[in-house]
Amino acid sequence: METLKAMFVKPDPQTQVRKCNQLIRQNTRKLDRDIANMKLAENKARTLIIQTNRRAQRNPAQAKQAEKDIRIFARELVRTRRQHNRLVTSKAQLNSVSMQVTEAFAVRKIEGSIRSSVGIMKDVNSLVRLPELTGTMRELSQELVKAGIIEEMVGDSLPDELEEEDEEAESEVDKVLGEILSDKMSKVGATPTTPTPVQQEPVAEDEDEEDAEAMLDQMRGRLEALKS
Q: Residue 11: left (phi > 0), alpha (psi -120 to 50), or beta?
């Protein structure tokens, strides 16, 4: 009965706008949490690079392994920064969707009709392809279709550029290492032979080394998965 009613009775505009706003707020909170987590991960990777470099200086016998570990941490830092930037961009797109949806419903209230928006469709299509938001953004797109704000369901395929970025990461790794280690690494894989003055956060040595090993294992697993 409810299904038949939904086919012949138009949705209440107030209910539609509340549902859309609720989904937008839900996605915004999710993005805020993810952005904060990415920033924490970025700071952690930066600290681990500094600590590993410092240990290599104190113990030259570990220098070769330290070089490999530093690059793994740097790759993770590059990946984290890219994801952070992608999430910030997505939040801006979501804010744009929110404003356009509000405007569309306001026009509907005044004129009694609503016009589909190519701009909203483009932003929603981009957001629904973001892994972190796929589920709730697909639900929002369905509500926007019902309201007539967009004309059709959006696609849910992942962006092809994600794989391309991984192939370009090595040049960014070198840049990150030069930035963090004050440009003392003269070439890829070179180990500083003299102490490198770096600014670092005060940390407990034993605890940080354990964290470094745990994070290193996770990163190695992620890199092996990418290679396969």
A: beta
Provide the 10 A C-beta neighbour count for residue 16: 21
- Integer Rg of the chain from CA: 24
Q: Tens digit of pLDDT for each residue in 46-73?
A: 999 999 998 888 888 888 898 899 999 9
Tell me, what's the pLDDT at 91? 94
C-alpha 171/C-alpha 148 separation (Å) is 46
Domain boundaries, the chain: 11-188+198-218
Prediction pTM value: 0.68
> What token pair was written down for 164?
């391309």
Task: Determine the residue type at 12.
Answer: D
CB count within 10 Å of CB 140 equals 27
Domain 11-188+198-218 top-level CATH class: mainly alpha
Nearest to 106 by CA among 117, 114, 118, 98: 114
* Cβ-contact 122, 80 below 8 angstroms: no
pLDDT digits (tens, 9 = 90+) for 156-184: 444 445 455 555 677 888 888 888 886 44
